[in-house]
Design brief:
With about 240 residues, the protein is of the alpha/beta class. It is about 50% helix and about 15% strand. Strands 4-1-5-8-6-7 form a six-stranded mixed β-sheet, sandwiched between helices. A two-stranded antiparallel ribbon has the order 2-3. The structure holds zinc ion.
């Protein structure tokens, strides 16, 4: 073959390979998203209103959790899930004229989130938070699950493994956690600490739109994989 012909053959080969790879990826994703199509998922953006959550300078937990949750909600909705947010604005869910201590107000806000989730009869509850530690060296997202729930554990492991696979910036494993919202919701429940705002690099990343999208995508992918592994089970997942 002449040089020119070789070039054409190589180009055609590359084009074909590219098309096959694209087709395979598309098929896998499309098949997987069917598993969330009929699911009801509650997303709980941590904190809100006077409850800012952790802060470092102008990096504020309640803002990050809301933005990340909104991105996660649109991705899940696009895959066909029915998504309910415990809050979609800057509020702690407690009425303005509440007359109690800050502590009581905080507890009331958490109870309202639980109440809202339990009313929906959802298949999964996902709370979004950011982590903070006095020591700025710690970084990495970590997913927690209800300690006595096998289903919660499976969901948390699927989410954590997708965060590891897609973001490649944590070696942390899913862990059992003792959180009010997970302990009191009636469906499988997980809480994702999407990273440490106390870490200089990660804190900055968490406010970045593109990074928020990537994290939301990883969480969504984990949720899709969790439901895919459950697809043989017809009965609603029970704790
Ligand atoms: Zn928090």
């Amino acid at each position: 073959m002449q040089r020119k012909q070789v070039k054409i053959v190589v180009c055609l080969f590359l084009l074909l390979t590219f098309m096959v790879i694209r087709w395979e990826n598309k098929t896998e994703t499309e098949l997987m998203v069917y598993n969330v199509a009929s699911k009801v998922i509650v997303i709980d953006p941590g904190h809100g209103g006077i409850d800012t959550g952790a802060t470092r300078g102008n990096i504020i937990e309640k803002d990050i959790t809301l933005k990340m949750s909104q991105k996660l909600a649109s991705e899940l909705a696009a895959a066909g899930a029915a998504v309910i947010m415990t809050r979609s604005s800057d509020t702690d869910l407690v009425e303005d004229n509440f007359k109690g201590s800050y502590r009581e107000r905080h507890r009331k806000g958490l109870s309202k989130r639980v109440e809202k989730a339990n009313q929906t009869g959802a298949d999964l509850f996902v709370s979004i938070h950011t982590n903070a530690d006095p020591n700025p060296r710690w970084s990495g997202a970590q997913t927690f699950y209800h300690q006595q729930s096998e289903e919660s554990k499976k969901a948390a492991e699927a989410i954590q493994s997708e965060i590891k696979r897609l973001l490649k910036n944590t070696k942390r494993d899913a862990l059992a956690g003792d959180y009010f919202v997970m302990n009191n919701t009636e469906m499988p429940a997980v809480l994702v600490e999407v990273g440490f705002i106390s870490n200089y690099k990660e804190g900055k990343l968490l406010t970045d739109e593109e990074y928020q999208k990537k994290m939301a995508h990883a969480i969504c992918s984990g949720i899709v994989k969790y439901f895919a592994s459950e697809s043989g089970v017809n009965e609603k997942a029970k704790r």
